[in-house]
Design a protein that fits this description.
- By secondary structure, this protein is an alpha+beta fold.
- It has one domain.
- The protein is built from 2 helices and 5 strands; from the N terminus they run βααββββ.
- A 5-stranded mixed beta sheet has the order 1-5-4-3-2.
- Strand 2 and strand 3 form a beta hairpin.
- The longest helix is centred in the N-terminal third of the chain and has 10 residues.
Amino acid sequence: MDTPQLASTILSATHGRQRRSERDIDKVDLKMAKKYGMKQQARHGRVKYTFRGVVFIYDPKTNKEVLPLSHPLDIAKKVVRM
């Protein structure tokens, strides 16, 4: 299935790319969160976006992702133990 191209451009710093890689988050997930997700004010003039399990901090002044905080849930792989 093809993912439609999102027109929004989000620049990535080395730190953000490294964290996304560690958390298995694609850049398109950030774009979708920015376009469709819940927007909240964060510290230092930054914005927090949340969408489908992806949470990330964005700096509108520099147009850069600051930090992806979580990753999409893969329900098929998640094991719940009680």
